[in-house]
Each structure stands twice: as C-alpha cells, then as structure tokens.
Write a structure and sequence with these properties.
Blueprint: H1 53-57, E1 66-67, E2 70-71, E3 73-74, H2 85-97, H3 107-127, E4 135-138, H4 141-153, E5 161-165, H5 174-177, E6 185-189, E7 191-192, E8 197-198, H6 200-206, E9 211-217, H7 229-238, E10 242-246, H8 258-261, E11 265-269, E12 279-283, H9 285-290, H10 314-331, H11 338-366, E13 371-373, E14 387-391, H12 397-406, E15 409-410, E16 412-414, H13 419-424, E17 433-437, H14 444-455
Parallel strand pairs: 3-15, 5-6, 5-9, 9-10, 10-11
Antiparallel strand pairs: 1-2, 4-12, 7-8, 11-12, 13-14, 14-17, 16-17
Helix pairs in contact: 2-10, 3-10, 3-11, 10-11, 11-14
Bound molecules: pyridoxal-5'-phosphate.
Pyridoxal-5'-phosphate (PLP) binds near residues 169 and 172.
Length: about 450
C-alpha cells in the first residue's frame, strides 16, 4: 500500500497542473492531487495496515471545527462527507479562472471543456469503466436514476417485471416501481432481519424470462450490508435482465470495478466520497446508445452528452476530479496509473475502516442494551461498510442524535430514505434508528469518544 511521500502526482498520467494563482504555467482546475499522506509518526495503535488518518485529516478544514468547546466529530458521513482543501480550491479556482459554458472558442470555455473532460477521466478511473463515454454527470444520483427510468419506461411492455429490494434507499426503488404505470410487475427481494443481509436465494427465485431489470444496492445506507452484487448480476443476466447498481454508499469505502461486476448501470454521488454535490451514472455504452434519453433537440446526441440535461455544474466537476485525486493519493506511488492507485487506495481505506467498525461494534456491544441492526459478526466485516444503525431503550433515535449533537458528535436518526428496510425491521413507527457512519478520516479515538458519551446516558428506568 503506497503513500504519496512527495507532493504531487506519484501515479503516471496527466502532468500535475495547479489552481494556485501567480504561477507562470497554465491555470487549470480540477487536476490537483491532494497533499501527501506521509506517515506522521503519530499513528494510532489500531492502524496495523499502516494507514495514518492524522495527515489525511489535516487536509479537511471542516474537521477542525469546535462545537460547544469540543472537537466536532463527523459520524454523519452516509448523509454526506466533508471535503479536502483540494476540492475547495478546485471549486473556487474554477470560478476564478475558468467560469464559462462549454464549447466556446475563448480561453475560459476551453478550460471548462477541459474541466468536464478531466472529471470524466477521473470517474472513469474511479469506477473502472471501459471509457469516458460511459460516464454521465447530473445533479444527483436520484435525478439520474429517474432520468434513466423514464427512458426505460418507454420500452416496458405490460407484464414485464422489475425487481427491487427491501435493503435499498428509495432512490433505487421508486424510479423502478414507477414502471408499474407502464404495466410492469414489481417484485421485491427481501432481507434477513436478523443480520440485515439480502436474501440472494430469494432474489434469484424471483428472476424469470419476463424480468427486465434488477435494482440492487452495492452497500446499504442504513445497516451497511454489502450484498454479493456479482452474483446478482450473473443470475440476472442468465435470465436476460439488466442490473442497476446503487453504489452511493459503497464508493467511499471500497474499490469499484464496473467491468468486473459486469453491471449494466451503476450510480454514485460525489458528495459521499469527499466531493461536491453531484451525481454520476455509469451505463454500458450499448444501453446508453440503444435507449432514448429525454433531451432538448440542439444538444449533442452522442455519448455521453445525450444523457446530460442542460448545463452541468462545472465547478462541481472541478471538485469531482480533486476528490478522486484525493483518494488516488492514498494509493499512489511507484509510477502506477491513477486507476491502480485508486484500487490500492480503496483497499487501504477498506482495511482501515474495518478496524474502526470492529471497535465500534465491540463498543456498542459492551453497552449491553444496544441493539445493532445489520451484520455484527466481526469475522464478516468484509460484508459491510462502516455504517451502523442501532436503537436502545435509553433514548429515542432522534433524542440520541440530539444528545450526541450536544456533545459535539454528528450522526443521523430516522429512516434515511431506506423506508422499506425500516418497515421490514419494524422500526418505521418508532423513529427509525440511530446511524453512525464512519469514513476514512475518522479515528479510533473518535469511536471511543462516542462510546464513552453513550455510556454516560442513564439506563432506562434507572
Ligand atoms: C444508498 C443511497 N442511494 C441513493 C442516494 C441518493 O443520492 P443523491 O442524494 O445523490 O440523490 C443516497 C443518499 O443518501 C443513498 O444513501
């Protein structure tokens, strides 16, 4: 696992450009790699794999906030992550040097063209797509999914079937259940309430020659489960169905490889992986060519532009590239490509986060009256992201979140739009659950602080 020991790109590819003003080279935003993650020598004892969050945290200005005299702790990451300075610089730098619409003859427009192309190249590397023409940008994963579903709707015949799951965020459910309006039959794959895993045997039993699409989560935004998506894709393809993967909660925590998965579509959101509020859709070129998008007539009809509605958030795209480069810097070294650096980086992140999950689950277990929903077996940490939902009798989920906020700790309560899951876990009428979601910049000390703060709440009835 390599670390960037010198400033700048350590993987091969585009030469580093900069957003800094006053330098005599071409100003070009969105290509800057985050500062190095050199080992500071203050490594936490939990970091056996050599990942040191301390220098990484220094890149995130928001992490140094003090709330009520306490260092703020961000465990609200599944709702959105903080951004490194490089992302802030890239967004601000875009406005300073490149602000224009695309396709013009003048300097700022040409720079904007390069920013868009740079972000597409970055997402190609993050997701492992065959090429940039398969990457579509939009305002959010939700908007992109409805957009695609609207086009798919026009190809649906009465009696066609779609499969959604009880694990998924509603953004990967309602766009597909809406196909009922065109006569589609909706089937629902269930979870095992005991451990929050997806029942894949049950899902496979729902597949039939009429199945048009399976919509499945790469990782749950509520209980953290990582289903075996490859198995779903293979089974769906055998039945002749397409697969849409929601990787919003997977992309910040593990390497994504759309070609290895062979999925037909995959969506994610940059604001969940340390970038701006934007959505990204991958689609196999054959599908993006065959389906008809809803678009205005003068806009380009070639891939990927035909799927992009209106003017994109260019400043956000500059930030997307910076966010991807931030991740790549964790795995950079030895002249590897950015794609290879990202694969290595996300393995490093995954291994580090598993130590945090282990600590969090152990800490919650020690509180006795906490009930965790999802996988708690620490031998199966590879099957979950570090997102943990729990309830306890001491306080309601909302009151717990408010109490933690008063102690300087951000986390969510409620259903986080995983409504089917909450109903299936019988939590929907009790305010859902508390959600603690970790990211690569969190530390063992922060987890211990959370557990200590929770332990101070009096037992119910005491
Ligand atoms: C798993 C999952 N899918 C989809 C979404 C929706 O993403 P967006 O806000 O980009 O529409 C979220 C947002 O929290 C999510 O957690």
């Amino acid at each position: 696992m390599g670390f960037a020991l010198d400033r700048g790109l350590l993987y091969s590819g585009e030469p580093q450009k900069t957003t800094r003003r006053g330098r005599d080279r071409e100003i070009f935003v969105g290509q800057e790699v985050a500062p190095p993650l050199a080992n500071s020598g203050t490594m936490s004892e939990t970091n056996e794999m050599g990942f040191d969050p301390v220098p990484l945290r220094a890149q995130f200005p928001a992490l140094s906030q003090m709330w009520g005299g306490r260092q703020a702790v961000f465990f609200d990451n599944p709702g959105g992550t903080q951004v490194p300075q490089a992302v802030i610089d890239a967004v601000a730098g875009y406005y300073q040097t490149s602000n224009a619409n695309v396709g013009g003859a003048f300097a700022t427009s040409r720079r904007t063209d390069a920013v868009v192309a740079g972000a597409r190249a970055a997402m190609t590397d993050l997701l492992g797509t065959p090429g940039p023409e398969s990457i579509v940008f939009g305002p959010s994963m939700t908007a992109l999914t409805f957009h695609l579903a609207r086009s798919l709707m026009e190809t649906v015949k009465p009696g066609d079937e779609v499969i959604v799951t009880n694990l998924d965020h509603d953004a990967n459910v309602t766009p597909w259940t809406d196909l009922e309006a065109a006569g589609a039959v909706v089937r629902v794959a269930d979870i095992r309430p005991s451990d929050g895993t997806l029942d894949l045997d049950g899902l496979e039993a729902l597949l039939c020659p009429r199945t048009r699409l399976v919509a499945v989560s790469h990782a749950s935004n509520a209980v953290g489960t990582i289903p075996d998506v490859k198995r779903v894709v293979d089974a769906a393809h055998r039945a002749g169905a397409l697969v849409f993967v929601d990787a919003v909660q997977y992309a910040p925590h593990a390497p994504v490889d759309v070609q290895a998965l062979d999925c037909d579509f995959l969506a994610c959101s940059a604001y969940k992986f340390f970038g701006p509020h934007m959505g990204v859709l991958y689609g196999k070129a054959e599908h993006l060519t065959r389906l008809t998008p809803h678009k205005v007539k003068p806009s380009k009809d070639t891939l990927p532009y035909r799927w992009e509605q209106g003017t994109l958030n260019h400043e956000g795209l500059a930030g997307v590239t910076a966010a991807v480069d931030h991740l790549a810097a964790i795995g950079a070294g030895g002249g590897v490509s950015r794609r290879q650096a990202l694969q290595s980086a996300m393995q490093t992140v995954q291994a580090y986060e598993q130590t945090l999950s282990h600590r969090l689950l152990d800490g919650l277990r020690a509180l006795d009256d906490v009930r965790v929903y999802g996988l708690t077996d620490t031998a199966r940490l590879g099957e979950r992201v570090p997102t943990v939902a729990f309830t306890w009798p001491r306080l309601s989920p909302r009151a717990t979140a408010e109490y933690l906020a008063s102690q300087g700790i951000a986390c969510w309560s409620g259903d986080y739009y995983a409504q089917r899951l909450m109903r299936r876990l019988s939590l929907d009428e009790a305010g859902g659950a508390v959600r603690v979601g970790l990211a690569h910049y969190n530390t063992a000390e922060e987890v211990d602080r959370l557990i200590g703060v929770l332990a101070d709440v009096p037992m119910a009835g005491a």
